[in-house]
Structures are given as C-alpha cells and as structure tokens.
Task: structure prediction
Amino acid sequence: MKQSKLPFKTRKEDPKDEVSQNAKLLIRAGFVHKEMAGVYSFLPYGLRVLKKIENIIRKEMNALGGLESHLTSLQDKTAWEKTGRWDDSVVDNWFKTKLKNDTELGLASTHEEPLSALLCDHVRSYKDLPFSVYQFQTKFRNEARAKSGILRGREFLMKDLYSFSRNEEEHNEFYERVKKAYVSIFSKVGLGEKTFVTFASGGSFAKYSHEFQTLTDAGEDLIYISKKKGIAINKEVLNDEVLADLGIERSELVEEKSVEVGNIFSLKTKFSEPLELIYKDEEDKALPVIMGSYGIGVPRLMGTIVEVLSDDKGLVWPASVAPFDVHLVALFDKEGSVKEQSDKLYEELTDSFDVLYDDREAQVGTKLADADLIGVPTRVVIGSKTLAEGKVEVVDRKTGQSKLVALENLISELR
Amino acid sequence: MKQSKLPFKTRKEDPKDEVSQNAKLLIRAGFVHKEMAGVYSFLPYGLRVLKKIENIIRKEMNALGGLESHLTSLQDKTAWEKTGRWDDSVVDNWFKTKLKNDTELGLASTHEEPLSALLCDHVRSYKDLPFSVYQFQTKFRNEARAKSGILRGREFLMKDLYSFSRNEEEHNEFYERVKKAYVSIFSKVGLGEKTFVTFASGGSFAKYSHEFQTLTDAGEDLIYISKKKGIAINKEVLNDEVLADLGIERSELVEEKSVEVGNIFSLKTKFSEPLELIYKDEEDKALPVIMGSYGIGVPRLMGTIVEVLSDDKGLVWPASVAPFDVHLVALFDKEGSVKEQSDKLYEELTDSFDVLYDDREAQVGTKLADADLIGVPTRVVIGSKTLAEGKVEVVDRKTGQSKLVALENLISELR
Result:
C-alpha cells in the first residue's frame, strides 16, 4: 500500500477528547476514527489489524470444530422475555429500536437467546450433540460511560462461541479445550506472558467462570496473581473458600490492574430450559441441552495490545497482528534515483510481504516519526547514502536495532 | 465438513410464513434462519456463500484501488442534520435508538454522511485526491413491508464504495471503471447473461444513475431492455428524451421484471458542500470534493442467484460462490466397507477441495434429495456397487449428467 495514495493522516497532537492511551495512539496513527464515545470506525490500517486478530481467533475456533454462523443485530423480544432478560431493569445496557408498526426490537448485546431459539428448529436427538457455533458479530452495549477507547465499546466486534452438550462431562471437556485455545490465542497475539487465567464469579449456575486477564494499568479490573501457580483470582470472588479451592495462600498473591480480554462461562441449562432447547437421549427421555459461552471482544484485544506493547514513540505491533510486515521508507533525493530504486524494491517486496510504502514527498523526520508511530515491526529505509554501497537500512521497531543489508540479501533477511 | 457433525437440518416442507422462493429454498436447505420479516441469520452453508460473494467483490474493489475501512452502525445525528436527512419525514426508513442520556442515534442505513464528516479530518489538498473507500457493513432499513426474503432486508450486509475526486472528469473516469468492475462481479457470480446496465434516475444532481438489473420474476422493478444495445431503461425514467439520449427506439424495448443487484450514483457536491469536505487546489482555492457512491447488497445478490439459477429440486450454485466445491455422498453398506473407503476419500479430497461429506446414517433417498436441495456443483456418490469396480459416480448438479470415474482418476477429474 502506497502512503501517497492514502488520504488518512497521522497527527502529532493527542486528540483532546480522549483520556485512554489506546485511543490517543490509534487516532494519532490513523488507525481509527472516533464517531462518539465508545464508537470507533476502523480506517485501513486499523481494519487490517482487526482482521489479523480475527483470523487468529477463527483458526482456533475451527480447530475446536466450531461452526461459523452469523446471527442478526436486530433481535425479537420473544426469546428474551422467556429468559426474563428483556426488561431494561434486568439488562441495563440495552439499545432498543422500533419497527414501523411500533414493535420493539433489541440491538444485539449478546446472542444466547436468539441462538438457543434458532436451534430449537434443528436439535432433536442426542445424535445432534455435542457441537458449537461461533460468529464474529457486532455487539451493542449502552454503556453509561465509555472512556477507555476501544477497550470498552458501545458498538464492537465480538467473537462469541456457544457450546451445546449432552451432559456436564461432555461440557467440561469442551470447556477445557476452549481454555487451551484461548491461551493459544493470547499467546499468538503477543500477550501470552501478561495474560492470566483468572477465577471469577460463575453467576447463578456455576461455581466459577474463567476470565483471561491481561496486566496493564489501563485495566478496569483488579486481580490477585499467584505467580507460583500461574493463575489469578478476580477481586470480586477473593475469599477464603476460593483460596482453599485453589490451594493458594493469601500471602503469595500480588494485586494488579488488568483488562479482561476473554471470558468463558458454563451456563448449564440457564437458557436451554426457558427456551426449551431440548434433546431426546438414548432412552427417548427429553433433556435440556447443557450450554457454555465464550467471548472475546476483538477491538478490546487490539486495544490491550496497544496498551501493553506501545512505547513513547508510538504503536509497536507484534508481527502476527501487524497491519503490514514491512514498512518501506524512501528518503528521496533530488535526482530521482532513489525513487526509481525504491519503486522497484516495493514491487519486489510485495511478492513476498505485505508492504506499506512511504512514497510521500515529505521530510525525513516526518517519515521516520510516522513510521515509529504506525509501528510496523520491520522498517526498511532506502536513501542515497546507503544505496551508494548497494545497501538499505533494516530497523526493528521494537528494539530500535538497525543494520545495513545488501539489496540482494534483503528478501532472505526479512523472511 | 461432515454433515454428521452439523446440527442444522434440511426440511421437506416450505416454511409457512414465506412467500419468496429464495427464502423458502434457503430455509429448507439450512442456509438461513428467519429471525423476523426481512431479518435473516446466516447458518454455516449460507455464510460460506455470503463470504465467497464478498471476496469476489473485495478483489474487484481492491483492483479499483479502494481502501477497505469499517464505519460504525451507530450514527451521530450532527452530520445528517447538515445534509437535511436526519428527519424521519425525509428518510422514511430510519431505525433510531438512544443513549442512556437520551441522545438520539441513528442505525446506519447508508454512510455518505459519516464518511464525509470523517474525511474532513484528513483531506486537505488536491494531493490527497482522488481516492475511494469501501466497506462491507450492515445496513439497517426500516422497511414497512419485507416479503422478498433476503432480496430486501431490514438488516443486511452491504458493500458500499465511495469515491472522492477533484473534478467531474476524474469522477467520470472512476465511475466508468466501477461500471466495468460491476459487470465483472455479476458475471463472476453467474448472473452475467441476465444482468443489464440500466439507466435510472440520477436524483437531484446527475442526469442518470446506473442500476444493474437482473432479470427474474421475483423482481420488484420493471425495466425496458434493448437487446440490440445490451442496455436497459428503468420504467421510472422511460420517456422520449431518454430514448433520444440513448439512441433507442421504443419499438425495440422489451418489458421485464428484474431485481436491482447494484447501483452507482454520481453525487457531485451533494454531501461535500453541506459537510464542508473541501480541498485546496493547485492555486490554493478551496473547492468541494466531487463524490460518487456505489452499492451492492450482498444477501440480495445471493438471493438473486437463488431466484435465477435454482430448479425444482433445490438450489444450484455456480462454482464461484458455492458453499463447497464437492459434495461427497456416501451410501453406506452394512459391512462398513463403504464407510472406511469414503472416510479415506474425504480426507484425500479435502487436501484439494472444500468438501461437504454426507456421512450421516440416513436413507439413500434422503441423502440424494438433500444433495439436490443444497446444490453443491459437483456430487461424488460412493457406494458398494460402483466401488466393486473401483469407481465412484460423479454428478453435475446443474445438468444432472453423471458418469463413473475410477477412484485413481477422481482428483484430476474434479479439477
């Protein structure tokens, strides 16, 4: 992608109406645009990161056997009335709207109800189970406050996976597999070391749910980590019983601020009973399906990567989720010979890599500062000085380390 | 994908609450689920088709230089008030909702306003132009009636492309390139012969807009085709002046029902003036940007393919958008030897193709009828009778023609 063809600009100054570091940096670098508090549009760089994260998650969901579907944002109240969650006093972050005939509709805040209702048309026998369904779909949540940038959206893309099992044992087995898949996802996006499986409230049906909490001062949660065990406990459930359950001494716990980047819930029959999602077992006995739900907010995960990995120069993307593999920065000379060679190099590199090419007529300082701000992992700087020796400079964004590489070795060096 | 692992079922009977052929077939075949009139969830088969169409469109948009972005569904009224389109009496299909503090928000029916407003932060000089931005994003339209299945949704995925040019000439050049890209898209999804570039009303700013109309009795539009010229005129603009413009005699026109599968509009400065999307030209003169917008409703396109290409046995997908390349249908014997060989064949085929594998314990008649209903282009039937000769039956869904193919030649035959 040629920067000269992009209208989107970087900014030197922080936007005035943002307090969160992720939103400040992402807006300054031209990754997102704020439509209103908690509502962000994704510009080309930002969408690329979002899609890369999405694809890392999708692979793991497919490996679990998850069936990708796509439910709707507009929701009928019928299913929600059956579970008692339609009323705004029960679910306090509904957005609602109306059809022309005044029928009230909900905007999807989650999809347990419509998915369970939908499956009543399909699930009949124990032979249909177990299975799991997932989607990447927009969620709407009418948050009273939304000051954390893309960490807490009023509208955001969520991966939500739902599992349907015949019994607790089958459910627990799948639940543990999801836990492993989540560990793998957070590791792949570069947050492995900072992310802890955290015991949290299980709600009305299960003793615990599990959160995946990533350490950062930008977080809104407080967790207590046992480094020895490599697990954490959410402040909301920290008590002697929990400590005994987990075999942890209070003295070994360290308090940290964190962001919940994922959560997994055992739902038992909370939804299947009221919605009558029933199957017949081997003895033709009617039983409610055992459910689980498993969420990851994709922009929240992206925002957490920004909070954890950025530095004072700007964004620092791990290669796995970077908008581009290589940032080719051309320092043009007056004679035009650099341009000729950098255009040629761009064409060559695009065969093997996703390349952002700074082919703008701009000052060297501006170009290098923008490259730092945008945060592509590897920068290739091409200018007349090094070209005289047939070389370009290769800079690692994270460490800042640079080296001169001969043009003929560049592609193998970048691999 | 193994059908034994899928909970989703086909149905023999049409759903009672659908009048449109596309919805009847897609629901019966397990591609979509109706949440309410005009609001459909996409199940795994259906989502696969939608994604294939999306990717065909995406390639063409990228070839035009379109910059993929993703704007939000929740929209602030400010920009809409500037263009005078916030009021429900002006735009009659708004869905609106509210923040906790009673601020009214709109649900995206289109994105000219927010995109133009967003770009005011970025576009400054003639050097920033021309460019184009596109997205695949949900549109919400509060249709009074929605009886055409996925042809007219209250919520649907739309590809919307917007162009930004310095002058009419630059705009017209891009507009013509989009026209060609659209012709290519409709050809690639299998509707080329039935789809006509159609002259339609240009609204307040341009003399004409162009629609892409596909002939089908399911259509809500009436168009007049000149087969000689290969173009059509929408009934709404058919008059002597238009005929003279296009050099067409009224006598050569044939009336047909059709679906509008795409449309392209010249917007001139309709949005850039009120929203002050201004650039400075070479002489530092401030000028409003010249815009165009170009839409394709992805589910509508999918529904049109269903309306045009299906037969009395069910869906018939062109290979380019089919949910799978190959439908492997195993007719199991009691001894289990077919299962062993079909499992092996499934593994082999998945290396080269997207395969749907009917490994269910079900009757032969049910399996073959389901395969016809689902409509994968190529069916491979494996049973003990042909296996005795080392062969399988390969059936073309569209023509019904079948032939026996030796197992060792199967993969090369299917390519």
Remarks:
- Chain A touches chain B through 54 residues (CB under 8 Å).
- The domain at 3-309 of chain A is CATH 3.30.930.10 (BirA Bifunctional Protein; domain 2).
